[in-house]
Design goal:
By secondary structure, the chain is an alpha+beta fold. It has a domain of 125 residues: HemS/ChuS/ChuX like domains (Heme iron utilization protein-like fold, 3-Layer(aba) Sandwich), CATH 3.40.1570. The chain has 5 helices and 11 strands, in the order αααβαββββββββββα. The radius of gyration is 16 Å and the shape is globular. It starts with 12 loop residues before the first helix and ends in a 12-residue tail after the last helix.
Amino acid sequence: MTCAEHGAGAPAAGLRRDILALLEEKKPWVIASLAAALGVGEMAVAEALPPEMCRIICGSHFEQVWEALGQWEKATFIVQHGGHTIEFRCRIPAGRMGRGWYNIMGDAPLGGHIMPSAISHIAFLSMPFMGLESHSVQFFGADGHVAFAVYAGRENHAVIPAVKEAFMALRASFNPCGTAKDQL
């Protein structure tokens, strides 16, 4: 799905209602588990969430978003694959482009190489997790699945106020995918 195609139609009211009903249950709901429970794709779940819960932008903003995440004092990087969840609790390390890859640099526990061209959309998600406030940045592949996510850091089970503020400011700095500002 291209950015121009994203958001072409309004989400079905029934899907939004079903998602919000599931979120009332204090379970470890994430995009993937909601999608599985409802028999829809992960991007469909993100698109159906109310605007105050989810803002989707084009993946072409990857470097700008990643650099901003590196300013957070604490974050959790999560990859879910094949029923497994891998987490790194750390400051998101900086990187740089080289040969088509974004190479994560430094001595942080998190390292590796990300192919920004494979990130089709980025979603700023504010969705409760087991009844607790949660904010994350979800990176979607062209297949509509979440490739990985970065969650706002916590202290004593609460989102760190400065990290929440940075998340909200970053989210506000982008218009949703397909708007005039996103086409620049």
